[in-house]
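Hey,
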Amino acid sequence: MLTLIYFFSLLTKNVNTSTMVLIYGVPDPVTSYPTTILTGVSYDDCVAKCYMDDKCVTCYESSDSICYLYSSGDIVKVKKQEVGDTTDGGKVAMKIQQNETCPTSASSILEGVSNVYEVYPVNSYTYTGTKNPGYYSIDYGYISSTNNTEFIDPAPACIEYFNDNVTCSMSVSELFNSGRTLKGPGWPNSGLRPTTVAGTTTIKWIKWATTCGMGDAYPLNGVSGCFIIPAETTNYLQALTNCDLRGGDGLMTIPNEAAFDTFKERKTISGKYAIGLSRTDVNSPWTWELPELVVDSSGLNWAAGEPNSANLYTYVNFGVSGTPTISTTTESEELAGYICHIPF
């Protein structure tokens, strides 16, 4: 028997009355990709954040008190948690546009209610408890004029990390709080990466663009994936954007000292190249954007007088004799290029 908590209020943007239906359960980790992950948020606040966000259709608070928000298409199934179920579950709140007296069960209010959704290309979503036994499924309606396959509901056989460690048995928290790149559900996304800033984690989707089989992408011994090293005038913030557009999951880590030789061999011009070492403010530690690529500490080869206490970003300088060095930079200093990691 499901435990039901019933909460309702009025959605300010639409005429429709919006209701949050709360049950014990857990999003299916294989088909669910949270849009935002919040720590230090109470369950009531978690529900309120989803309720106030027009893009949010479902929220989940795990047993370790982490709040997950899901937009349309990011969640397909929610596992019902029955009495005696040992699943590492939590509490799920599902948004519907209906307001009636308190029902006797979640299914009596959720089942078959078509909810208007105003974010292209989705125009509606409906919860059903009869499609998959033991689950609430979410069916999405799409604007009829679009045939774009980008919006196919995600249904991978199993979520994996890019080093091929199968993660089917992991919980939602284990998967999405690792900070590691996961394989995506399919075209047009090759992967996704949880990125945390000041206690809020968002999901960065990685588009298919460059692949490790392409001519300008190179392997690096001892490191998964490959790298590209475009020689194009840029600054640090633009390098981050360009790396995303090329299908990267982040600016490159220098995994060890030996990597400098590989980078030197593959670069086309000397100069300063943005890398994935940064900090959030002048009082924070320097951290790699992709720390799982670190082999040992020998790749952290600071130039004399560095790190500069006033800067937040870094580049590797191939214009020095001997082993290249790492120096700090501003967000707008002109750089010769960037080194970008491509997952596979």
